[in-house]
Amino acid sequence: MQSLLTSSVSGGSDLTPFEAEHLVQGLKTFSIEDVGTPRWLGQHTTVQRLNTLAHLQAQHANDEYVVDLIITHEKLEVLVHELVVIECWRECVLPHLLKQDSFVDLPAIKNYIPLLHESILVNLLECMVFHKKTVTALAATDALVDLVDYMHRRLQAAVALTHNTTRTSTSRTASTTSSGNGDTTNREVLCRQEADSAFQVCMGAIALTHSVTEYSQELPKPVVKRIVEQQDWLLSLVPLMDAQPWLRENSRGRVEKYENSVWQPVADGDSTMPRVQGQVLLSIYNLVMDRDCMANYEITNFRKQNLLKMRRHLGEVVCDQIPPLLDLRRVLEEMSIQGNLPAAPSTSPFIVELVAAIREGLLAKYRGRWEEIAKRQLADVFLKRDTSEETRSLMRVLCDNMDTIEETNPTCPQCGKPAEKRCSKCRREFYCSRECQVLDWSRHKKLCPMLAQQGQAAHSKALQSDSGTKLRTD
């Protein structure tokens, strides 16, 4: 399935300022037990619509009133709270749910939406934090520490990603299972979707990191010290340049890069760096070249060697694309000779230790209860059939959104090029040409009947909230 982040969502692009304000005013915090409930799904739809509109306004340089409304109505803390809640749910509750076949076999509209929610929240915050006024507003809230800590955890997760391994260029392409028959089980599909969602979140966190480091002068000094000294973001950012999770080689041996939330084949001779790579480089630049940041950074021998690794990533091709990196390269060369970085005089003011109140509060509240919550959610939320008209209407909207998302920027599974032609039988696989469809038929013929059957049953299954054993709709 293609990226779910910036696709057009029903009712998102045509919101009036008054409608958008009404939606923003209705944003509220939920508990971990609420994940997946009709009320929670309703807010998920709201966030999705606001995210779509915010990105459309940014792309077209329109009046970005979504950003202004969220700041004015003090909903930044709500967004950060919901981000931390869904992260805790994914880390602590989801593993217990994945052990249950009844959860794995649910339609995507039920068990994939919570995974998607974190990506959308990160994407919306990415759009907002691009503006200096958002960082300034965050600096006045207690949620800033939680957001900074979240970003640090995602940077660490990005370093550990294994997206450099050979994978297919579209998650709709089925992989061969251990049974050897080419079928893809529900569990494999959901686990792959979880991995793809985690990857999208990590890439979004890199964009957040770039914006936060760009406006580091707006941050309170204790937060700056937490970033550079206690968490040492440079120790995560520099290894990212070695790992380069935004590049991969697909199953056909072609190199692809992660650009605009989708994997795209790299043309021969194309040396243009992916945007996310530029964001990592500029984040490092922002931290190293900021005297206030480096005043809090003790250059140990280990940290020095870590920073000097950056020199091999600052060649002429890279510096031509981002000229300010020439200054970073010069500073690193001086550091290799002199042994330290130019920095402001070091001071040691008394600084109160900061606490990530949202996450710490959640972990303390639910400690030892994760399995219990998972069992209760499975029975009372995910497997429960709710036939109310409100829930049916919500499911109808979500199902329509999933269909729209799935068809956004499809790529050919054979060559990786943009695809516009569908398989006439299942209408779920896309190809760029008849030739590629013929070449791919030996693989696709095993999936085609199943996908065709799923397509016919998808909407009715979602609306009925059926918990049967049919294969997933995606």
UniProtKB/TrEMBL annotation:
Biased composition regions of type Low complexity, renumbered to the chain: 166-184
Q: Does the keyword Metal-binding apply?
A: yes
Q: Where is this region: Disordered?
A: 166-185
Q: Which residues form the MYND-type domain?
A: 412-448
| Metal-binding among keywords | yes
**UniProt-recorded name of the protein:** MYND-type domain-containing protein
Keywords in alphabetical order, please. Metal-binding, Zinc, Zinc-finger
Kindly list the GO molecular function terms attached to this UniProt entry.
zinc ion binding
Domain of life the protein comes from: Eukaryota
Q: Which Gene3D superfamilies match?
A: 6.10.140.2220
Pfam families (UniProt xref) = zf-MYND (PF01753)
Which PROSITE patterns does this one have? ZF_MYND_1, ZF_MYND_2
Show the GO cellular component annotation of the record. Answer: cytoplasm
